[in-house]
């Protein structure tokens, strides 16, 4: 069993997979249903301590307290945009230099009568990011550490509880598009997604979970080999190697040719369409020729593309495209029968839009 221990060498139960939790309870000589009970307390009821696990005997709770911990992320701040988007700041476990914070975003959609429709949570999977895309505020922070699957699920669980209280229903979708490159923290991301879909947790359908990547080809193949049931989105943002090299350093080691092979491998095994995310930058990747090249990529396998209007980020020279260039760009895609949707980035007044998440205070310098 691979476990993460805290400074007292106690076992962090929220770093264990469901199978590892079973092994843990077996090692303690407990009956198998105890592992399901623990799992439910951790991931359905979201308790912060063993004392709250009231269907466990007092003796068992004391024993667990001696050998294990159930660390929970701490909600620090909430900002609400005028468009209804809510950004959350969470503090992770750790002191001093090890104290880190991450952001998550709730993007609600409403019916005309004002009732909540889709409630999408955008979660962070890493503190900072190693990939340094030039347009991204997270990339400018440097990289600090991966989140555990427990820390990822905690974000979802906290926001799910808030939605139930505020909108009378739980979240409907989860996207791994917050801080960090999800497939660079592969195990925790896959494990958190399977916890979120577990009926003893939130029980979301896997089809309502989307994992994004800048194009880590080995991990895309791994998702396919493991037949992971979640949706995959590729953060493309440029449709030829020259431009992609310029804004996404990953492209120099994993170029579009390699990405094409990985995407075709994925589709051949799973037969599941992909989504490409394409931030539209003014006079950089928004010409009719860019649209034609993008159409070629979207045709590698059955896919669709989201064209995202970029929110300006302080210190980034690239700016969001203008409406007239967007219109021309879309005409080229439509003329080629490409399924393309324009996404207006949400929450830009609170820096919660695509590419804008970054911790600006109380964060040590990145590596
Ligand atoms: Fe990292 Fe994604 Fe930002 Fe690139 S866009 S720096 S991969 S978080």
UniProtKB/TrEMBL annotation:
Chain positions recorded as [4Fe-4S] cluster binding sites: 129, 133, 136
The protein's required cofactors: [4Fe-4S] cluster
Compartments (UniProt record): Cytoplasm
Domain Radical SAM core residue range list: 115-349
InterPro entries named among the record's database cross-references: Aldolase_TIM, Methyltransferase_A, RlmN_N, RNA_MTrfase_RlmN, rRNA_lsu_MTrfase_RlmN/Cfr, rSAM, rSAM_sf
Location (main, coarse): cytoplasm
Catalytic activity field: adenosine(37) in tRNA + 2 reduced [2Fe-2S]-[ferredoxin] + 2 S-adenosyl-L-methionine = 2-methyladenosine(37) in tRNA + 5'-deoxyadenosine + L-methionine + 2 oxidized [2Fe-2S]-[ferredoxin] + S-adenosyl-L-homocysteine; adenosine(2503) in 23S rRNA + 2 reduced [2Fe-2S]-[ferredoxin] + 2 S-adenosyl-L-methionine = 2-methyladenosine(2503) in 23S rRNA + 5'-deoxyadenosine + L-methionine + 2 oxidized [2Fe-2S]-[ferredoxin] + S-adenosyl-L-homocysteine
Entry note: cofactor: Binds 1 [4Fe-4S] cluster. The cluster is coordinated with 3 cysteines and an exchangeable S-adenosyl-L-methionine.
MF terms (GO), sorted A to Z: 4 iron, 4 sulfur cluster binding; metal ion binding; rRNA (adenine(2503)-C2-)-methyltransferase activity; rRNA binding; tRNA (adenine(37)-C2)-methyltransferase activity; tRNA binding
Protein's name in the database: Probable dual-specificity RNA methyltransferase RlmN
Organism: Fodinibius roseus
